[in-house]
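FYI - complex with flavin-adenine dinucleotide, inputs then prediction.
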Amino acid sequence: MIQRKSVTSSKEKTTMKKIAVIGAGLTGATAAANLVQQGYQVTVFDKGRSAGGRMSSKRTEQGYLDMGAQYFTARTDVFKQQVQLWLDAGQADVWPCTTALLCNEDGVVSLKSSKDEQRRFVGVPSMHSPINALLLGIPLITGCRISKLDYRQQSWILWGDNGISYAGFDAVLLTLPPAQAQQLMTQSSLPEVFDTAANLLEPCWAVAMQAEASPAGDAIFCQHPKLRFISHQQYKSGRNSCFVLHFNAAFSAEHLQQPADFWFAEATAVLRDELNIKQTIEPLVAHRWLYASQNDQTAVPGCIELPDHQLWLGGDWSYGGRVENAYLAGFALAQAVIRNYKLQQENA
Ligand SMILES: Cc1cc2nc3c(=O)[nH]c(=O)nc-3n(C[C@H](O)[C@H](O)[C@H](O)COP(=O)(O)OP(=O)(O)OC[C@H]3O[C@@H](n4cnc5c(N)ncnc54)[C@H](O)[C@@H]3O)c2cc1C
């Protein structure tokens, strides 16, 4: 659990090992914050324009649109404590959503309310606000895709695809989706670590639409040939009322290369035919996630430790996808590095 206040005081306790964290999603941010809290010198790299990864919200004239994660839940004590800190600091809020279930079996549509007791949370004012809070004060290099890693004389060099290299790191944490991590490992002549990298995370097309209509539910779970989730943003702090539709992995994969207009037409048809919306519907944003969420048929690999290379890999995929598992992976990665370093000191 990260309480930013204690960062500077505990810094003095340890020597300044330099750690590169690649990926500024929740896994990378959590690992970075935990390491900094223990006195490590951390730099975070991300290919995106800002931190957030799959928890990114898009800033538009309509306010923030959550194109990735729609909410998060907290089931473990360690994550509950972190969420409480975000709530206290106004970086997260409860999403007071009504839940519903949309089914379409052989063309027969049914929409039922499906109440549950689950507490759901959102970042405020955007889904990535908790990540920004974790990264506060930590050097973050964005717009930099790391395309190659080099381990020479017990020191890492990172090569960005902007032609810039970053040298002098004692250890590297890779917090990328497995397929991207595997690609980077291969380009760097490092060992293959995933058997099923390509299949662990599946794609999702996410589409935001504006319609002045009351939603049938704020969080609509879908058992549907095309969809997995429909969200309405009206009760999320900091957002305007609009719909976000997430198409399921099979339908997204089948039409992966289709342009935005295809997805706007599909989303309009769903809102008209399945949710019975008569008002004007306007397309806002369509976003393709190549690696969205875990395929629950595959075994979870945990975090991957390569201490001989001073290299650790992890992400939401380590424990089964979802925001909470990304947090747990970041926490576990930081603990693994700290443990390894202590062992080195004991054996020196
Ligand atoms: C459409 C969608 C809906 C979802 N809905 C929910 C939900 O409702 N609830 C829930 O709990 N979870 C949900 N999830 C899952 C949740 O968003 C993820 O589990 C979590 O955000 C993953 O965090 P991460 O840090 O492990 O990975 P990521 O967020 O993917 O972070 C990895 C980062 O690495 C960066 N990167 C990749 N390659 C490189 C490179 N070579 N160099 C530098 N940087 C690189 C990426 O830009 C990215 O920022 C959803 C995800 C998607 C996509």
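The CA atoms of residues 182 and 193 lie 7 Å apart. The pocket of flavin-adenine dinucleotide is lined by residues 22-28, 45-48, 53-55, 68-72, 145-146, 175-177, 180, 184, 204, 206, 246, 289, 292-293, 315-316, 321-323, 326 (CB under 6 Å).
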